[in-house]
């Protein structure tokens, strides 16, 4: 969740949505994203809307406290019930992200989930995920989460190499994420993800291979691997600008991606989104697929984004301002936009092209179709699916995904 919020129209004080957004809502999948904006320390590359205790001191008073945050977020879940109405609509996915959600007590996370269950109901096969910092959980904590209804967990591993973690300002000990996978399995978690980052200054090809091998040795059923992006305003960006560490390199990123694809596919992991691999369809992150397919989700928490029926909105960023709005009985929304049919078409192309199933060629306009034929001839799209009416990226196309999608949209 990037720290900057877009411009938009004001959100009504009661959070009401246009009737068009709710039309047919009962037939669309619904997910919840629950944002926990707290971190013990700030990672040097992070541009998300998160806060350490020092950053919050004196800026939000008791309203910004971690101790009562779960109560505040539950208030927004109840607001969501009022806004979305009484039509039966079970929640298909819940994803607790951050920040570091596991800085809260396990009971707090379970209470937040319980509010979603009580207000909406959960689908019998609902996917319930939380992110976790490896140093912020232990077997008892994981057992409490599993007993409380969580069935998927995502650990931030980033790298198996201490010098790479040091550049990223990650505080966990190498080997701890892999141990967490075993502890999560012992607690009864069905699905476990490890997040990796490649292209960190000072990382070598061998370092990256070692990280992949360590992740695979732990036995998760899902691995995410993201290229490091240096965001303006972060500590890492300042260090690069001062010449303390080298700038990341696109060619290095491409080489590391190829290493990831080779290593993960050889171990039985199939890509289903450009940066995500799973051992089976059941291991795929259904919540993220809601985003990528333009479904409905409610994002609760400071700075969280939501989308329902073509209306997108986002909350105020600061935990104090967020809590104050809800305490006053008002929506914490900071702004919103109503997407046009063209907006939604473009977003489908942008997001669905990144998926293994690709995007229907019927969504492309004349210029986009011409671009797709060029991409096919250049080996960026797979021939078989193209003949069946879908644009699906080849491995080379995945390396150039951003450029390909720009051409198809234009």
UniProtKB/TrEMBL annotation:
Source organism, top-level taxon: Bacteria
Subcellular location: Cytoplasm
Domain Radical SAM core: 24-270
InterPro entries in the cross-refs: Coproporphyrinogen-III_oxidase, Elp3/MiaA/NifB-like_rSAM, HemW-like, rSAM, rSAM_horseshoe, rSAM_sf
Gene3D superfamilies: tm_1862 like domain
Pfam family, one: Radical_SAM
Keywords on record: 4Fe-4S, Chaperone, Cytoplasm, Heme, Iron, Iron-sulfur, Metal-binding, S-adenosyl-L-methionine
Role this protein plays: Probably acts as a heme chaperone, transferring heme to an unknown acceptor. Binds one molecule of heme per monomer, possibly covalently. Binds 1 [4Fe-4S] cluster. The cluster is coordinated with 3 cysteines and an exchangeable S-adenosyl-L-methionine.
UniProt similarity note: Belongs to the anaerobic coproporphyrinogen-III oxidase family. HemW subfamily.
Name listed for the protein in its UniProt record: Heme chaperone HemW
């Amino acid at each position: 969740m990037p720290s900057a919020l877009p411009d938009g129209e004001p959100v009504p004080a009661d959070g009401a949505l246009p009737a068009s957004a709710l039309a047919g809502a009962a037939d669309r999948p619904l997910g919840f994203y629950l944002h926990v904006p707290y971190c013990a320390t700030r990672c040097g590359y992070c541009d998300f809307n998160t806060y350490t205790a020092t950053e919050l001191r004196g800026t939000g008073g008791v309203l910004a406290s971690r101790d009562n945050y779960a109560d505040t977020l539950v208030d927004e879940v109840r607001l969501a019930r009022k806004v979305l109405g009484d039509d039966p609509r079970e929640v298909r996915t819940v994803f607790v992200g951050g920040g570091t959600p596991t800085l809260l007590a396990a009971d707090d996370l379970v209470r937040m989930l319980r509010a979603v269950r009580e207000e909406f109901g959960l689908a019998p096969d609902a996917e319930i995920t939380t992110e976790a910092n490896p140093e912020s959980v232990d077997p008892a904590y994981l057992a409490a989460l599993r007993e409380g209804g969580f069935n998927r967990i995502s650990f931030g591993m980033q790298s198996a190499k201490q010098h790479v973690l040091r550049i990223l300002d990650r505080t966990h000990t190498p080997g701890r994420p892999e141990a967490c996978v075993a502890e999560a399995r012992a607690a009864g978690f069905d699905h476990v993800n490890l997040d990796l980052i490649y292209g960190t200054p000072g990382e070598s090809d061998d370092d990256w291979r070692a990280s992949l091998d360590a992740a695979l040795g732990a036995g998760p059923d899902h691995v995410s691997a993201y290229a490091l992006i240096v965001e303006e305003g972060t500590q890492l960006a300042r260090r690069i600008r001062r010449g303390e560490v080298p700038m990341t390199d696109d060619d290095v990123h491409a080489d590391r991606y190829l290493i990831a694809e080779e290593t993960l596919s050889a171990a039985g992991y199939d890509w289903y989104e450009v940066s995500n691999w799973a051992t089976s369809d059941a291991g795929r992150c259904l919540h993220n697929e809601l985003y990528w397919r333009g479904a409905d989700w409610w994002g609760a928490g400071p700075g969280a984004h939501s989308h329902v029926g073509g209306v997108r909105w986002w909350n105020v960023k600061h935990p104090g301002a967020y809590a104050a709005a809800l305490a006053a009985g008002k929506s914490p929304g900071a702004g919103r936009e109503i997407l046009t049919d063209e907006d939604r078409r473009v977003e489908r192309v942008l997001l669905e092209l990144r998926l293994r199933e690709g995007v229907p060629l019927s969504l492309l306009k004349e210029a986009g179709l011409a671009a797709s034929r060029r991409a096919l001839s250049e080996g960026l799209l797979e021939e078989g699916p193209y003949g069946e009416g879908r644009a699906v990226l080849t491995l080379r196309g995945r390396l150039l995904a951003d450029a390909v999608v720009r051409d198809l949209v234009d």
